[in-house]
Design goal:
431 residues; alpha+beta; SH3 type barrels; CBS-domain; 5-stranded antiparallel beta sheet; 19 strands; 32% helix; 23% strand
């Protein structure tokens, strides 16, 4: 039974006298399970009253019978946690996360109810394609489009009495790119609700911002203070933070930079000096550089403690200027943001080779003594051809003196090459 089949049905008392028309159904949403229908909103002469489920003798399309008369009905007022199924959910978008943790937006073309545990409950929705009229039951409705409610999340920001928000732990199961696709496919209000649902997981929020396109990044930042934007940028990878910073108006950019720590500000200002279409503009200044006398076992131990993302841990580099006992972690760049100026590039070691090496072998024995690299001024075609020629996942970037400045990873290169219109995945658009 569908909500749209019940809306507009006559409501009668026990004697068969019509006391109004069903305007909506009320449900109480919770974190888990199937929401119970707690009553029916009945309208008569412009006034709305409420019939609780316990006072319903029968509930069916075209006929709803109560056990009370009109005089016993009280006025309808929203109570905390209550949701109007027709007004708040029907015809709107919902997030569907399937058993394989794949996400897409679907439209609630119909809300299906079923009797469970002595209650009428929201069992799921019939998802419809864009362009179909909302909450209008089709005679030839395809029930294969039924989506179980427990795999759905409803946007509730527009509901004044709802205490429920999108479930952050469900969103956390998705890849940041999938969450970004949902934000881009949703309305501005829905997109903001998705970002807010990430809650205290600030690292995930930063990862999602790295995946958003320019338009949605700026949209999500519009109502944030300079300090909040600075904090967000500090959690993003430096190259992605610079991309976002470059999108912000020049007048605000300076205020955001001023809200950062001196080390963070220095790092981003340095990257802002590069043309965004060059290796300097695409590179991340975070990499692992160790003395050539470091053993394979010591290098692996350093990598275990390292905070760099996986795409930056494909290759480590050797730098002769560091041929001295390491201090805390033995590397140059990374989460601590140590300055790399003046550090020459002596070689590179793939992590796969490091894993296979004898624990006592020195990096100088394992390293490629003439690793491929490009200068900070190299353009995108040169970067792409070099990475393709050497089958690289990450590529060293050096300045005019041959000093190691950063690393371009294949994902950053692809992000730059893929047309913006191709970024959104079809699954997130709904069917």
């Amino acid at each position: 039974m569908g909500v749209s089949e019940l809306v507009g049905s006559p409501v009668s008392d026990a004697s068969g006298r019509q006391i109004g028309t069903a305007e909506d159904l009320v449900a109480r949403f919770a974190e888990e399970g199937y929401p119970p229908v707690t009553g029916v909103v009945v309208t008569n002469g412009g006034a709305s009253s409420f019939v609780p489920t316990q006072r319903l003798a029968s509930l069916g399309p075209g006929s709803i019978v109560t056990t009370v008369d009109r005089q016993q009905l009280g006025p309808f007022e929203r109570r905390p946690g209550e949701v109007l199924l027709r007004r708040d959910v029907l015809g709107r978008q919902l997030i569907h996360i399937d058993s394989n943790h794949r996400a897409r937006l679907v439209h609630a073309g119909e809300i299906d109810l079923a009797e469970m545990d002595g209650w009428w409950r929201v069992a799921g929705v019939d998802a419809v394609r864009r362009g179909w009229l909302p909450w209008r039951r089709r005679a030839d409705v395809d029930h294969s489009a039924f989506v179980d409610w427990t795999s759905l999340d409803a946007f509730m920001r527009h509901v004044p009495t709802s205490r429920l928000r999108l479930r952050s732990r469900r969103l956390a199961q998705l890849h940041p790119g999938e969450i970004a696709d949902l934000v881009e496919s949703a309305s501005p209000s829905e997109g903001q609700e998705i970002i807010e649902a990430l809650g205290e997981d600030k690292a995930l929020e930063a990862d999602v911002f790295e995946e958003l396109d320019q338009e949605h990044r700026l949209e999500m930042l519009a109502n944030r203070s300079d300090v909040e934007v600075a904090n967000l940028l500090s959690r993003m990878e430096p190259d992605d933070a610079v991309d976002l910073l470059s999108d912000i108006d020049q007048s605000r950019r300076q205020s955001v930079l001023a809200a950062m720590t001196p080390e963070q500000e220095k790092r981003l200002r340095k990257l802002l000096d590069y043309n965004p279409n060059t290796a300097g503009g695409l590179m991340s200044p975070r990499f692992v550089c160790l003395p050539p006398t470091t053993t394979a076992a010591a290098a692996l131990e350093i990598l275990r403690r390292d905070e760099l993302t996986a795409d930056l841990l494909d290759t480590i580099f050797t730098c002769p200027a560091l041929d001295r006992p390491p201090d805390t972690d033995g590397r140059v760049e990374g989460s601590r943001g140590v300055d790399t100026s003046g550090v020459g590039l002596a070689g590179s070691v793939r992590i796969r080779d490091l894993l296979r090496a004898d624990p006592g072998a020195l990096l100088s024995e394992l390293a490629d003594p003439d690793p491929p690299s490009v200068t900070t001024s190299a353009d995108v075609p040169e970067i792409a051809l070099t990475m393709a020629d050497y089958n690289l996942v990450s590529l060293a970037v050096v300045d005019q003196h041959g000093h190691l400045s950063g690393v371009v990873t294949v994902d950053d290169l692809l992000d730059h090459l893929i047309p913006q219109g191709w970024r959104r995945r079809a699954e997130a658009l709904g069917d």
